[in-house]
Every structure is written in C-alpha cells, then in structure tokens.
Design brief:
alpha+beta; 2 helices
C-alpha cells in the first residue's frame, strides 16, 4: 500500500493515518507513505486551488519509485 498525504489536510488527520499504518504493519501488511508538509488537500490536482506543483511532482516520483520496486 502506498499513501501520499498532505500535511495540512483537515479531512484526514495524520494521527489517523499513522494509526492505520501501525495496524497494517502489525498485521504484516506494510505501508509506504509520504507526507508533503505544507501542502493542502488536493495538492496533486492541477485544476484545484490548492495545487502544489512541487509536492505533486514529489508524490509522482514517490509513486514511480514504489511501482518500480514492488511491481516486478
């Protein structure tokens, strides 16, 4: 599982995200995730007001790295 989260999201708290990661890891279902500090919800959507090009590119690079590592 790959999670790409923004640091300023009010819809999904980082506390909840981290709790979910701990539960998945404890169950043997590892999670790879990143948090884009300072980014807002919809940071990767170029048509959104909260679009953050740098955070979106970082999330894309993280996605591709995960795909390369896991999808062989």
């Amino acid at each position: 599982m790959l999670g790409l989260f923004d640091g300023n999201d009010t819809a999904v708290s980082l506390f909840s995200v981290r709790a979910g990661h701990r539960a998945r890891n404890a169950a043997g279902r590892p999670v790879t995730s990143t948090v884009s500090a300072g980014a807002n919800h919809t940071f990767a959507n170029p048509s959104a007001q909260a679009y953050d090009a740098a955070a979106a590119m970082d999330a894309w690079d993280t996605s591709l790295a995960c795909f390369r590592a896991k999808l062989r």
